[in-house]
Amino acid sequence: MIIGYARVSTQDQNLQLQLDALQAAGCFEIFEEKMTGTKKDRPALIEMLKMMRKGDRVVVYKLDRISRSTKHLIELVEVFEEKEVDFVSIQDNIDTSNAIGRFFFRIMASVAELERDIISERTKSGLISARARGRKGGRPNSDKKKVELAKKMYQSKNYTIKEITTATGISHSTLYRNL
Fold first, then answer.
1. How far apart are CA 163 and CA 166, in angstroms?
2. In whole angstroms, what is the distance from residue 107 CA to residue 104 CA?
3. Among 176, 166, 6, which residue's Cα sits nearest to residue 91?
4. Would residue 67 show up in a list of annotated catalytic residues for this protein?
5. Count of CA atoms in the C-beta half-sphere (13 A) of 60
6. Catalytic residue among 9, 69, 110, 129
7. Where are the domains of the chain?
8. What class does CATH assign to 2-106?
């Protein structure tokens, strides 16, 4: 089955151009959304991902209609590959049912993986450098006096959790962890 996905960012925008192109591409069912593409948990997108089956084809007008970030787009294409669903972007001339389209997305996935690896290496190097200068990193420990005061307030049963955390400045989780 050929499935279309059309999205605009605001309620004021019109989907008609995308809908016309998706219908011309032979889409049997079209999922429509009027919401920002930066959110991953878009209801129509989630519904489409649940509905698609092996052998289906997902068609969008342009890549930025299904995702606004490269990382999310690659995650979506990985889902399509797992479910053995082809992906087509009309305006970008991308079709993963052919070798060139699959190659293009594998290159994108490799670039994203390289980027993640570089970030990881920088983070590790930064931590090593900070430790060499005597810095431990991580969150600072809670003030022991404040924790003890919070425990005493809790045990007195005269204060609510909100009152205790506000008075001592420690978090709910820190209080419960120390009780």
1. 5
2. 5
3. 6
4. no
5. 22
6. 9
7. 2-106, 144-178
8. alpha beta
